[in-house]
Prior knowledge:
With 446 residues, this protein is α/β, with parallel strands linked by helices. Helices cover 33% and strands 22% of the residues. A six-stranded parallel beta sheet has the order 2-1-3-4-5-6, sandwiched between helices. Strands 17-18-19-21-20 form a five-stranded mixed barrel. A three-stranded parallel beta sheet has the order 7-10-13, sandwiched between helices.
Amino acid sequence: MKEDKKFHIQTMGCQMNERDSETLCGMLAELGYTRTENRQDSDVAIINTCSVRDNADKRFFGTLGQLKKIKEQRPDFIVCVCGCMMQQQYIIDTIKQKYPWVDIIFGTHNIHEFPKLLKSVISEKEKIVDVWKDAGEIVEGMPSKRLYKFKAFVNIMYGCNNFCTYCIVPYTRGRERSRCPEEILKEVRALAADGVKEITLLGQNVNSYSGSPENDPDGKKTDFADLIYMLQEIEGIEKIRFMTSHPKDLSDKLIQAYTDCGKLCANIHLPVQSGSDAVLKRMNRHYNREQYLALVNKLRDAVPGITMSTDIIVGFPGETEQDFEDTLSLVEEVGYDSAFTFLYSIRRGTPAAGYDDQIPEEVKHERFDRLVEAVNRHSAEKNAAMKGRVERILVEGPSRHDKTTLTGRTEGFKVVDFEGDESMIGTFRDVLIIEGKTFSLRGKLV
Ligand code: 5AD
Ligand code: SF4
């Protein structure tokens, strides 16, 4: 085998997938592979797929199509596909039928087996499909190659039990499993020792975190707020964030943690999905508009200046014009700092896929445009109001749009671009906000 083996990885979808890709990168590094950004040039190509984002299927199959050529030129080139899409049987069937150049198909529950699968494909030259229907025990201690040096994602739980009727996640990521608190603390201490200053705790629904003590599954449980208090004590970690929270499970104890734990950033992502009670009910969200708004007010009262973002779906089956207007009015009432807006799209195997009152595409798009206008107007207003404030920013690196400027985020998770020296990367700096735009801020070092 050649000496300098290279791999290419493409990650679609959410932070969970990003985190899984870090693990895959870590495992490949241990096998002696280095990462390349050029797929043409790689020995192993991985696509880590997503089932949630719009058009994910199309993009994925498009990319797979392009890989055929490389495989024809270099039969030793290994194509691996994994992630949420692989947990759906019809996807596996399609790959087998139409994309026979794929070598390894694995799922979300057996990432830890990847080195074994890869070695086996290399030695046996046989294709492997290994997708576990259910999650096994949580596997700890996997290697990882982090995306960033100074901030890190930390999984605290996997899976979801909520079964929102539009969502595929409970089927692709399985039931809720929480890591034990000792493992999380150990990981975060190691990250801190390695120079990480900001952590983002990840879970589909972090508010229902319930960790058992190591070696004692029936012992006293640690809940999400308890975990924050424990993490607050770790020296070196200066900022703690988390995502995502389900409004139905957000506890008063967590709200108290915002007050008590200085490291917990005053920001929350609180997906509302719809402002209509009828739609929320059919989505199986377990809260209504009034309860959601009460929660927003409670958070704002307890945590002054807390910034808020959300997810909203437009055109859920049966959504009437009035239902949609209820969503619009909720957006006006809350005034989010930012929002992710989604056109409802059918996910095979979910309850809502079978609802017979699907909304015509043009109606969805028309509503979507109105929603985006409202969302962006509020973002621009909130960002404009930041002008004149001084924010303590962890300098993350050069800005994505302009390599000559630096970028970081405010405590409230707003992107700030400012001029500065690369030597500042990884340090905290005070930045005066001089302009608020729709999607970001411009600042000046003070
Ligand atoms: N159609 C549109 N948006 C969806 N989301 C999840 N499933 C769907 C779907 N079928 C959105 C939700 C969720 C976000 C991650 O993706 O708003 O909060
Ligand atoms: Fe999907 Fe609902 Fe679970 Fe979020 S809470 S992952 S939207 S089922």
